[in-house]
Specification:
This protein has 1 helix and no strands. The chain is mainly α. It has a domain of 31 residues. The radius of gyration is 28 Å and the shape is elongated. The termini are far apart. The model has no long low-confidence stretch (mean pLDDT 79).
Length: 85
């Protein structure tokens, strides 16, 4: 009886890594298909990191590793004088 129980434990412990590998393979193949279909839901999906977008509109300029800084705009003075306080 103990021998049968140990066989079930061994089969169960072998099935878990096989299931993980199968699931990873299925996810990778569906990811390739979704990329080919330009699936826009990939942008907001957890566990997926977008490094570069290749399906951009014509004329788009891609700047690698650009730091975006938002600064207030300064209007130039017409006569070059400092603004009144």
């Amino acid at each position: 009886m103990l021998r049968v129980l140990l066989w079930f434990v061994a089969i169960g412990l072998s099935a878990v890594p096989l299931w993980i590998l199968w699931r990873a393979g299925k996810k990778a193949s569906s990811l390739d298909f979704r990329i080919m279909q330009n699936d826009s839901t990939l942008l907001g999906e957890d566990g997926i990191i977008i490094n570069q977008m290749t399906g951009l509109p014509a004329g788009t300029i891609v700047t690698e590793n650009a730091n975006v800084m938002v600064m207030p705009t300064q209007r130039p003075q017409e006569n070059g004088a400092a603004p009144e306080e």
